[in-house]
Amino acid sequence: MAQVKEQSGLEERSGLFERLLGWIERVGNKLPDPTTLFVILAFLVILISWICSMAGVSAIHPGTGKELTVTNLLSKEGFRRMWSMAVPNFAGFAPFGMVLVAVIGAGAAEKSGFLAALMQKMLANASRTMVTAVIIFIGINGNLAGDAAFVIMPPLAAVTYLGMGRHPLFGMFTAFAAVAAGFCANVTLGLSDALAYGFTEPAARMIDPTYHQSPAINYYFLIVSCIVLTVVGTFAAEKLVAPRFEGQDLSKYGKATVEALTPEQHRGIKMAGFAFLIACLVLIAMCLGDDPLMGDPAAGGSIMSSKSPFMSGIIVTVSVLLFIPGVTYGFVSGKYRNDKDMFRDVVAAFRDMAPYILLCFFCAQFTNYFGWSNLGVIIAVKGAAALKALNFTGIPLLVGVIFVSCIVNIFIGSASAKWAILAPVFVPMMMLMHFDPAVTQVAYRIGDSITNPLSPLFYYFPLILGFAHRYEPDTGMGTVIANMFPFSLCFSITWIIQLVIWCLLDVPLGPGGGIYLQ
Fold it and tell me: Could you cite one Gene Ontology molecular function of this protein (predicted)?
Protein backbone atom coordinates (compact mmCIF):
# COMPACT_ATOMS: atom_id res chain seq x y z
CA MET A 1 0.00 0.00 0.00
CA ALA A 2 2.83 2.38 0.93
CA GLN A 3 4.50 1.64 -2.40
CA VAL A 4 1.26 2.42 -4.27
CA LYS A 5 0.92 5.74 -2.43
CA GLU A 6 4.53 6.58 -3.14
CA GLN A 7 4.04 5.85 -6.84
CA SER A 8 0.83 7.91 -6.86
CA GLY A 9 2.64 10.85 -5.29
CA LEU A 10 5.42 10.56 -7.86
CA GLU A 11 2.90 10.58 -10.71
CA GLU A 12 1.14 13.60 -9.21
CA ARG A 13 4.38 15.55 -8.89
CA SER A 14 5.32 14.51 -12.42
CA GLY A 15 1.90 15.63 -13.63
CA LEU A 16 2.27 19.04 -11.99
CA PHE A 17 5.69 19.49 -13.54
CA GLU A 18 4.40 18.43 -16.95
CA ARG A 19 1.56 20.94 -16.66
CA LEU A 20 4.14 23.62 -15.88
CA LEU A 21 6.13 22.67 -18.98
CA GLY A 22 2.93 22.65 -21.02
CA TRP A 23 2.12 26.16 -19.82
CA ILE A 24 5.64 27.36 -20.66
CA GLU A 25 5.33 25.83 -24.13
CA ARG A 26 1.92 27.39 -24.83
CA VAL A 27 2.97 30.84 -23.67
CA GLY A 28 6.31 30.65 -25.46
CA ASN A 29 4.74 29.54 -28.72
CA LYS A 30 2.56 32.65 -28.70
CA LEU A 31 5.68 34.74 -29.11
CA PRO A 32 6.31 35.93 -32.67
CA ASP A 33 8.81 34.34 -35.03
CA PRO A 34 12.39 34.85 -33.77
CA THR A 35 13.16 37.15 -36.70
CA THR A 36 10.14 39.30 -35.87
CA LEU A 37 11.09 39.19 -32.20
CA PHE A 38 14.54 40.63 -32.89
CA VAL A 39 13.01 43.36 -35.07
CA ILE A 40 10.66 44.29 -32.22
CA LEU A 41 13.48 44.20 -29.68
CA ALA A 42 15.64 46.42 -31.88
CA PHE A 43 12.89 49.05 -32.00
CA LEU A 44 12.36 48.73 -28.25
CA VAL A 45 16.06 49.35 -27.63
CA ILE A 46 15.87 52.49 -29.78
CA LEU A 47 12.81 53.72 -27.85
CA ILE A 48 14.18 52.85 -24.40
CA SER A 49 17.53 54.47 -25.23
CA TRP A 50 15.67 57.71 -25.98
CA ILE A 51 13.64 57.53 -22.75
CA CYS A 52 16.64 56.69 -20.56
CA SER A 53 18.79 59.32 -22.26
CA MET A 54 16.17 61.98 -21.59
CA ALA A 55 15.90 60.77 -17.97
CA GLY A 56 19.67 61.00 -17.47
CA VAL A 57 20.16 57.35 -16.54
CA SER A 58 23.83 56.59 -15.86
CA ALA A 59 26.24 54.40 -13.88
CA ILE A 60 29.92 54.33 -12.94
CA HIS A 61 31.93 51.57 -14.61
CA PRO A 62 33.57 49.63 -11.75
CA GLY A 63 36.65 48.80 -13.81
CA THR A 64 37.49 52.18 -15.35
CA GLY A 65 35.71 54.56 -12.99
CA LYS A 66 34.18 56.38 -15.97
CA GLU A 67 30.57 57.50 -16.03
CA LEU A 68 28.38 55.46 -18.35
CA THR A 69 25.44 57.26 -19.92
CA VAL A 70 22.73 55.95 -22.21
CA THR A 71 23.33 56.80 -25.86
CA ASN A 72 20.19 58.07 -27.56
CA LEU A 73 19.72 56.07 -30.76
CA LEU A 74 16.60 58.06 -31.65
CA SER A 75 18.67 60.98 -32.88
CA LYS A 76 20.31 62.08 -36.12
CA GLU A 77 23.64 60.63 -35.05
CA GLY A 78 21.97 57.41 -33.93
CA PHE A 79 20.05 57.04 -37.19
CA ARG A 80 23.15 57.65 -39.29
CA ARG A 81 25.10 55.08 -37.32
CA MET A 82 22.37 52.43 -37.54
CA TRP A 83 21.83 52.97 -41.26
CA SER A 84 25.50 53.04 -42.30
CA MET A 85 26.54 50.16 -40.02
CA ALA A 86 23.79 47.68 -41.01
CA VAL A 87 26.04 45.68 -43.35
CA PRO A 88 29.17 45.82 -41.12
CA ASN A 89 26.99 44.71 -38.19
CA PHE A 90 25.86 41.67 -40.18
CA ALA A 91 29.30 40.81 -41.54
CA GLY A 92 30.91 41.22 -38.13
CA PHE A 93 28.33 39.20 -36.19
CA ALA A 94 30.61 36.61 -34.58
CA PRO A 95 28.28 33.57 -34.49
CA PHE A 96 27.36 34.09 -38.17
CA GLY A 97 30.86 33.53 -39.52
CA MET A 98 31.75 30.80 -37.04
CA VAL A 99 28.61 28.81 -37.76
CA LEU A 100 29.05 28.98 -41.54
CA VAL A 101 32.68 27.87 -41.33
CA ALA A 102 31.70 24.99 -39.05
CA VAL A 103 28.91 24.00 -41.46
CA ILE A 104 31.49 23.23 -44.19
CA GLY A 105 32.95 20.38 -42.15
CA ALA A 106 29.85 19.44 -40.20
CA GLY A 107 27.76 19.43 -43.37
CA ALA A 108 30.16 17.08 -45.16
CA ALA A 109 30.33 14.75 -42.15
CA GLU A 110 26.56 14.71 -41.70
CA LYS A 111 25.31 14.64 -45.29
CA SER A 112 27.81 11.97 -46.35
CA GLY A 113 26.29 9.71 -43.71
CA PHE A 114 29.57 9.42 -41.80
CA LEU A 115 28.34 10.70 -38.43
CA ALA A 116 25.20 8.57 -38.49
CA ALA A 117 27.13 5.44 -39.49
CA LEU A 118 29.82 6.11 -36.89
CA MET A 119 27.29 6.59 -34.09
CA GLN A 120 25.42 3.46 -35.19
CA LYS A 121 28.62 1.42 -35.10
CA MET A 122 29.81 2.82 -31.76
CA LEU A 123 26.47 2.62 -29.97
CA ALA A 124 25.05 -0.51 -31.60
CA ASN A 125 24.83 -2.46 -28.34
CA ALA A 126 24.41 0.47 -25.97
CA SER A 127 21.24 1.02 -23.97
CA ARG A 128 19.08 4.08 -24.52
CA THR A 129 20.18 5.58 -21.23
CA MET A 130 23.84 5.01 -22.07
CA VAL A 131 23.44 6.76 -25.43
CA THR A 132 21.85 9.73 -23.68
CA ALA A 133 24.70 9.83 -21.15
CA VAL A 134 27.30 9.74 -23.95
CA ILE A 135 25.56 12.54 -25.86
CA ILE A 136 25.36 14.69 -22.73
CA PHE A 137 28.98 14.06 -21.73
CA ILE A 138 30.26 14.94 -25.21
CA GLY A 139 27.97 17.98 -25.31
CA ILE A 140 29.17 19.30 -21.95
CA ASN A 141 32.76 19.05 -23.15
CA GLY A 142 31.83 20.50 -26.53
CA ASN A 143 33.12 23.94 -25.54
CA LEU A 144 36.62 22.56 -26.11
CA ALA A 145 35.75 22.70 -29.83
CA GLY A 146 34.50 26.25 -29.48
CA ASP A 147 31.10 27.17 -30.86
CA ALA A 148 31.32 24.36 -33.41
CA ALA A 149 29.62 22.08 -30.86
CA PHE A 150 26.37 24.03 -31.29
CA VAL A 151 26.43 23.21 -35.01
CA ILE A 152 27.55 19.59 -34.76
CA MET A 153 25.93 18.02 -31.71
CA PRO A 154 22.18 18.73 -32.11
CA PRO A 155 21.82 17.36 -35.68
CA LEU A 156 24.06 14.40 -34.81
CA ALA A 157 21.97 13.55 -31.75
CA ALA A 158 18.76 13.87 -33.76
CA VAL A 159 19.96 11.35 -36.35
CA THR A 160 21.24 9.00 -33.64
CA TYR A 161 17.98 9.02 -31.69
CA LEU A 162 15.85 8.56 -34.79
CA GLY A 163 17.94 5.52 -35.68
CA MET A 164 17.14 4.10 -32.23
CA GLY A 165 13.42 4.61 -32.76
CA ARG A 166 13.27 7.71 -30.57
CA HIS A 167 12.04 11.19 -31.43
CA PRO A 168 14.76 13.24 -33.19
CA LEU A 169 13.77 16.44 -31.38
CA PHE A 170 14.35 14.72 -28.04
CA GLY A 171 17.93 13.95 -29.06
CA MET A 172 18.42 17.40 -30.54
CA PHE A 173 17.17 19.21 -27.43
CA THR A 174 19.22 16.96 -25.13
CA ALA A 175 22.43 17.73 -27.03
CA PHE A 176 21.73 21.46 -27.18
CA ALA A 177 20.98 21.62 -23.45
CA ALA A 178 24.23 19.82 -22.65
CA VAL A 179 26.33 22.11 -24.84
CA ALA A 180 24.65 25.34 -23.73
CA ALA A 181 23.86 24.78 -20.04
CA GLY A 182 27.08 22.90 -19.30
CA PHE A 183 29.24 25.29 -21.29
CA CYS A 184 31.87 26.06 -18.64
CA ALA A 185 32.47 22.45 -17.53
CA ASN A 186 35.20 20.45 -19.26
CA VAL A 187 37.74 17.69 -18.68
CA THR A 188 40.68 19.75 -19.92
CA LEU A 189 41.51 23.44 -19.85
CA GLY A 190 40.08 25.45 -22.71
CA LEU A 191 39.90 28.97 -24.06
CA SER A 192 37.00 29.83 -21.74
CA ASP A 193 39.25 29.22 -18.71
CA ALA A 194 41.89 31.60 -20.02
CA LEU A 195 39.35 34.27 -20.96
CA ALA A 196 37.67 34.20 -17.55
CA TYR A 197 40.94 34.36 -15.64
CA GLY A 198 42.11 37.23 -17.82
CA PHE A 199 39.52 39.45 -16.09
CA THR A 200 39.73 37.83 -12.65
CA GLU A 201 43.41 38.62 -12.02
CA PRO A 202 43.22 42.40 -12.67
CA ALA A 203 40.08 42.59 -10.52
CA ALA A 204 41.80 40.70 -7.68
CA ARG A 205 44.79 43.03 -7.84
CA MET A 206 42.51 45.90 -6.85
CA ILE A 207 42.69 44.36 -3.35
CA ASP A 208 45.93 42.35 -3.50
CA PRO A 209 48.45 43.84 -5.98
CA THR A 210 50.55 40.65 -5.77
CA TYR A 211 47.74 38.26 -6.74
CA HIS A 212 48.74 35.83 -9.48
CA GLN A 213 47.56 32.31 -10.27
CA SER A 214 46.90 30.30 -13.43
CA PRO A 215 43.79 29.87 -15.61
CA ALA A 216 43.40 26.42 -13.98
CA ILE A 217 41.98 27.81 -10.69
CA ASN A 218 38.57 26.15 -11.32
CA TYR A 219 39.88 22.95 -12.93
CA TYR A 220 39.13 20.39 -10.18
CA PHE A 221 35.61 21.73 -9.69
CA LEU A 222 34.81 21.66 -13.41
CA ILE A 223 36.15 18.13 -13.91
CA VAL A 224 33.82 16.86 -11.19
CA SER A 225 31.04 18.95 -12.74
CA CYS A 226 31.41 17.02 -16.01
CA ILE A 227 30.67 13.74 -14.27
CA VAL A 228 27.94 15.05 -11.97
CA LEU A 229 26.14 16.99 -14.71
CA THR A 230 26.28 13.98 -17.03
CA VAL A 231 24.41 11.90 -14.44
CA VAL A 232 21.94 14.68 -13.61
CA GLY A 233 21.46 15.58 -17.27
CA THR A 234 20.71 11.95 -18.12
CA PHE A 235 18.09 11.88 -15.37
CA ALA A 236 16.52 15.11 -16.63
CA ALA A 237 16.48 13.81 -20.20
CA GLU A 238 15.09 10.34 -19.54
CA LYS A 239 12.68 11.13 -16.69
CA LEU A 240 11.50 14.67 -17.39
CA VAL A 241 11.88 15.33 -21.12
CA ALA A 242 11.63 11.92 -22.83
CA PRO A 243 8.01 11.27 -21.69
CA ARG A 244 6.95 14.38 -23.63
CA PHE A 245 7.95 12.68 -26.90
CA GLU A 246 6.74 9.14 -26.26
CA GLY A 247 4.02 7.60 -28.41
CA GLN A 248 4.51 9.91 -31.38
CA ASP A 249 4.53 8.62 -34.96
CA LEU A 250 8.09 8.64 -36.27
CA SER A 251 7.32 7.35 -39.76
CA LYS A 252 6.98 10.90 -41.13
CA TYR A 253 10.68 11.45 -40.43
CA GLY A 254 11.78 8.62 -42.71
CA LYS A 255 13.19 5.35 -41.47
CA ALA A 256 12.56 5.00 -37.75
CA THR A 257 14.96 2.08 -37.63
CA VAL A 258 18.39 1.86 -39.17
CA GLU A 259 19.39 -1.07 -41.34
CA ALA A 260 22.62 -2.95 -40.67
CA LEU A 261 25.72 -1.27 -42.03
CA THR A 262 26.87 -2.55 -45.41
CA PRO A 263 30.44 -3.78 -46.04
CA GLU A 264 31.06 -0.57 -47.97
CA GLN A 265 29.94 1.51 -44.99
CA HIS A 266 32.15 -0.49 -42.63
CA ARG A 267 35.07 0.08 -44.98
CA GLY A 268 34.15 3.75 -45.23
CA ILE A 269 34.23 4.14 -41.44
CA LYS A 270 37.59 2.39 -41.27
CA MET A 271 39.18 4.56 -43.95
CA ALA A 272 37.61 7.69 -42.47
CA GLY A 273 39.24 6.74 -39.18
CA PHE A 274 42.63 6.46 -40.87
CA ALA A 275 42.11 9.82 -42.59
CA PHE A 276 41.14 11.41 -39.27
CA LEU A 277 44.21 9.93 -37.58
CA ILE A 278 46.53 11.29 -40.27
CA ALA A 279 44.89 14.73 -39.98
CA CYS A 280 45.37 14.66 -36.20
CA LEU A 281 49.04 13.68 -36.57
CA VAL A 282 49.60 16.57 -38.98
CA LEU A 283 47.88 18.91 -36.51
CA ILE A 284 50.05 17.65 -33.65
CA ALA A 285 53.18 18.16 -35.75
CA MET A 286 52.07 21.75 -36.37
CA CYS A 287 51.84 22.25 -32.59
CA LEU A 288 55.30 20.91 -31.72
CA GLY A 289 58.68 22.62 -31.56
CA ASP A 290 60.13 25.77 -30.04
CA ASP A 291 58.28 27.96 -32.53
CA PRO A 292 55.34 25.82 -33.72
CA LEU A 293 53.31 26.77 -36.75
CA MET A 294 50.18 26.84 -34.56
CA GLY A 295 51.87 28.83 -31.79
CA ASP A 296 51.81 32.50 -30.87
CA PRO A 297 55.32 33.99 -31.30
CA ALA A 298 54.42 36.83 -28.93
CA ALA A 299 53.66 34.28 -26.20
CA GLY A 300 56.82 32.22 -26.59
CA GLY A 301 55.27 29.87 -29.14
CA SER A 302 52.40 28.83 -26.85
CA ILE A 303 49.52 27.16 -28.67
CA MET A 304 47.19 27.93 -25.73
CA SER A 305 47.49 31.69 -26.17
CA SER A 306 44.19 33.25 -27.21
CA LYS A 307 46.00 34.81 -30.19
CA SER A 308 47.65 31.60 -31.42
CA PRO A 309 46.40 30.10 -34.71
CA PHE A 310 45.44 26.97 -32.77
CA MET A 311 43.08 28.74 -30.36
CA SER A 312 41.87 31.61 -32.53
CA GLY A 313 41.31 29.21 -35.44
CA ILE A 314 39.70 26.41 -33.44
CA ILE A 315 36.54 26.59 -35.58
CA VAL A 316 38.58 26.09 -38.76
CA THR A 317 40.46 23.21 -37.13
CA VAL A 318 37.27 21.45 -36.08
CA SER A 319 35.70 22.01 -39.49
CA VAL A 320 38.73 20.49 -41.25
CA LEU A 321 38.81 17.52 -38.84
CA LEU A 322 35.17 16.83 -39.68
CA PHE A 323 35.45 17.48 -43.41
CA ILE A 324 38.34 15.06 -44.02
CA PRO A 325 36.77 11.89 -42.54
CA GLY A 326 33.33 12.89 -43.81
CA VAL A 327 34.50 13.18 -47.41
CA THR A 328 36.68 10.07 -47.10
CA TYR A 329 33.68 8.07 -45.91
CA GLY A 330 31.54 9.46 -48.72
CA PHE A 331 33.91 8.30 -51.46
CA VAL A 332 34.83 4.93 -49.94
CA SER A 333 31.23 4.01 -49.10
CA GLY A 334 30.07 4.87 -52.60
CA LYS A 335 27.97 7.89 -51.63
CA TYR A 336 30.20 10.18 -53.70
CA ARG A 337 31.46 9.46 -57.20
CA ASN A 338 33.09 12.83 -57.85
CA ASP A 339 33.65 16.28 -56.37
CA LYS A 340 30.27 17.49 -57.64
CA ASP A 341 28.50 14.96 -55.43
CA MET A 342 30.62 16.04 -52.49
CA PHE A 343 29.97 19.76 -52.81
CA ARG A 344 26.29 19.14 -53.53
CA ASP A 345 26.01 17.84 -49.97
CA VAL A 346 27.92 20.79 -48.53
CA VAL A 347 25.64 23.19 -50.41
CA ALA A 348 22.63 21.29 -49.06
CA ALA A 349 23.95 21.86 -45.55
CA PHE A 350 24.18 25.59 -46.25
CA ARG A 351 20.67 25.54 -47.69
CA ASP A 352 19.42 24.25 -44.34
CA MET A 353 21.00 27.30 -42.70
CA ALA A 354 19.06 29.85 -44.81
CA PRO A 355 16.52 30.75 -42.07
CA TYR A 356 19.35 31.19 -39.58
CA ILE A 357 21.28 33.45 -41.96
CA LEU A 358 18.21 35.69 -42.35
CA LEU A 359 17.71 35.81 -38.60
CA CYS A 360 21.39 36.66 -38.04
CA PHE A 361 20.95 39.94 -39.91
CA PHE A 362 18.31 41.21 -37.51
CA CYS A 363 19.97 39.63 -34.47
CA ALA A 364 23.19 41.45 -35.36
CA GLN A 365 21.36 44.79 -35.57
CA PHE A 366 19.69 44.28 -32.19
CA THR A 367 22.94 43.18 -30.53
CA ASN A 368 24.83 46.21 -31.81
CA TYR A 369 22.03 48.65 -30.97
CA PHE A 370 21.97 47.27 -27.44
CA GLY A 371 25.75 47.63 -27.15
CA TRP A 372 25.82 51.16 -28.58
CA SER A 373 23.09 52.30 -26.19
CA ASN A 374 25.09 51.16 -23.10
CA LEU A 375 21.86 49.72 -21.67
CA GLY A 376 23.37 46.27 -21.12
CA VAL A 377 26.43 47.59 -19.29
CA ILE A 378 24.32 49.85 -17.07
CA ILE A 379 21.93 47.00 -16.24
CA ALA A 380 24.90 44.81 -15.27
CA VAL A 381 26.44 47.51 -13.07
CA LYS A 382 23.11 48.29 -11.40
CA GLY A 383 22.44 44.58 -10.81
CA ALA A 384 25.84 44.04 -9.21
CA ALA A 385 25.35 47.13 -7.04
CA ALA A 386 21.92 45.86 -5.95
CA LEU A 387 23.43 42.55 -4.82
CA LYS A 388 26.14 44.40 -2.93
CA ALA A 389 23.51 46.56 -1.21
CA LEU A 390 21.71 43.48 0.13
CA ASN A 391 24.64 42.91 2.50
CA PHE A 392 24.58 39.12 2.07
CA THR A 393 27.48 37.19 3.55
CA GLY A 394 28.91 33.70 3.24
CA ILE A 395 27.36 31.11 0.96
CA PRO A 396 24.14 33.13 0.29
CA LEU A 397 26.37 35.80 -1.24
CA LEU A 398 27.89 33.24 -3.61
CA VAL A 399 24.41 32.08 -4.62
CA GLY A 400 23.53 35.73 -5.19
CA VAL A 401 26.47 36.05 -7.59
CA ILE A 402 25.13 33.05 -9.51
CA PHE A 403 21.65 34.54 -9.83
CA VAL A 404 22.87 38.00 -10.85
CA SER A 405 25.03 36.33 -13.50
CA CYS A 406 21.96 34.41 -14.72
CA ILE A 407 19.99 37.62 -15.13
CA VAL A 408 22.80 39.57 -16.79
CA ASN A 409 23.33 36.62 -19.16
CA ILE A 410 19.91 37.29 -20.65
CA PHE A 411 20.94 40.80 -21.70
CA ILE A 412 24.61 40.33 -22.64
CA GLY A 413 25.53 37.29 -24.71
CA SER A 414 29.32 37.47 -24.59
CA ALA A 415 30.76 35.68 -21.54
CA SER A 416 33.93 37.77 -21.57
CA ALA A 417 31.97 41.03 -21.92
CA LYS A 418 29.84 40.15 -18.88
CA TRP A 419 32.82 39.20 -16.73
CA ALA A 420 34.68 42.34 -17.79
CA ILE A 421 31.83 44.30 -16.18
CA LEU A 422 31.09 42.08 -13.18
CA ALA A 423 34.60 41.00 -12.17
CA PRO A 424 35.70 44.47 -10.95
CA VAL A 425 32.61 44.51 -8.69
CA PHE A 426 32.30 40.93 -7.49
CA VAL A 427 35.95 39.87 -7.09
CA PRO A 428 37.06 42.73 -4.79
CA MET A 429 33.76 42.62 -2.88
CA MET A 430 34.11 38.88 -2.28
CA MET A 431 37.79 39.21 -1.34
CA LEU A 432 36.80 41.66 1.39
CA MET A 433 34.44 38.91 2.59
CA HIS A 434 37.51 36.58 2.64
CA PHE A 435 36.47 34.62 -0.47
CA ASP A 436 39.20 33.59 -2.90
CA PRO A 437 38.85 35.05 -6.44
CA ALA A 438 38.62 31.46 -7.74
CA VAL A 439 35.28 30.80 -6.01
CA THR A 440 33.84 34.10 -7.25
CA GLN A 441 34.90 33.21 -10.79
CA VAL A 442 33.34 29.76 -10.65
CA ALA A 443 30.08 31.18 -9.25
CA TYR A 444 29.93 33.60 -12.18
CA ARG A 445 30.67 30.85 -14.69
CA ILE A 446 27.87 28.70 -13.29
CA GLY A 447 25.36 31.52 -13.65
CA ASP A 448 26.67 32.33 -17.10
CA SER A 449 26.00 28.76 -18.30
CA ILE A 450 22.69 27.58 -16.86
CA THR A 451 20.43 30.18 -18.50
CA ASN A 452 22.00 29.90 -21.96
CA PRO A 453 19.44 27.46 -23.40
CA LEU A 454 16.47 29.41 -21.99
CA SER A 455 17.15 32.81 -23.49
CA PRO A 456 15.77 33.59 -26.97
CA LEU A 457 18.50 36.26 -27.07
CA PHE A 458 21.25 33.63 -26.79
CA TYR A 459 23.18 33.64 -30.06
CA TYR A 460 22.57 29.95 -30.77
CA PHE A 461 18.94 29.75 -29.66
CA PRO A 462 17.72 30.61 -33.19
CA LEU A 463 20.09 27.94 -34.54
CA ILE A 464 18.47 25.13 -32.54
CA LEU A 465 15.07 26.43 -33.64
CA GLY A 466 16.21 26.20 -37.26
CA PHE A 467 17.47 22.65 -36.73
CA ALA A 468 14.14 21.69 -35.16
CA HIS A 469 12.26 23.01 -38.19
CA ARG A 470 13.91 20.28 -40.29
CA TYR A 471 11.68 17.78 -38.48
CA GLU A 472 8.80 19.92 -37.19
CA PRO A 473 8.34 23.13 -39.22
CA ASP A 474 5.85 24.47 -36.68
CA THR A 475 8.21 24.24 -33.71
CA GLY A 476 8.02 27.47 -31.72
CA MET A 477 10.22 29.09 -29.11
CA GLY A 478 7.91 27.81 -26.39
CA THR A 479 8.61 24.21 -27.40
CA VAL A 480 12.35 24.76 -27.17
CA ILE A 481 12.18 26.64 -23.85
CA ALA A 482 9.83 24.08 -22.28
CA ASN A 483 12.21 21.25 -23.13
CA MET A 484 15.26 23.23 -21.99
CA PHE A 485 13.74 24.17 -18.64
CA PRO A 486 14.20 20.74 -16.95
CA PHE A 487 17.88 20.73 -17.87
CA SER A 488 18.50 24.29 -16.67
CA LEU A 489 16.59 23.64 -13.44
CA CYS A 490 18.43 20.40 -12.67
CA PHE A 491 21.82 21.86 -13.60
CA SER A 492 21.15 24.93 -11.44
CA ILE A 493 20.20 22.94 -8.35
CA THR A 494 23.06 20.49 -8.82
CA TRP A 495 25.72 23.12 -9.40
CA ILE A 496 24.61 25.18 -6.40
CA ILE A 497 24.63 22.09 -4.17
CA GLN A 498 28.06 21.11 -5.49
CA LEU A 499 29.42 24.59 -4.80
CA VAL A 500 27.93 24.64 -1.28
CA ILE A 501 29.51 21.25 -0.50
CA TRP A 502 32.83 22.49 -1.86
CA CYS A 503 32.62 25.54 0.41
CA LEU A 504 31.63 23.56 3.51
CA LEU A 505 34.50 21.12 2.99
CA ASP A 506 36.89 23.90 1.91
CA VAL A 507 38.13 21.80 -1.02
CA PRO A 508 40.44 23.48 -3.58
CA LEU A 509 38.66 24.45 -6.78
CA GLY A 510 41.83 23.98 -8.80
CA PRO A 511 45.60 24.51 -8.63
CA GLY A 512 46.02 27.72 -6.64
CA GLY A 513 42.28 28.23 -6.41
CA GLY A 514 40.84 27.94 -2.92
CA ILE A 515 37.50 28.81 -1.35
CA TYR A 516 38.69 31.23 1.30
CA LEU A 517 41.66 33.58 1.41
CA GLN A 518 44.42 32.45 3.72
Answer: secondary active p-aminobenzoyl-glutamate transmembrane transporter activity
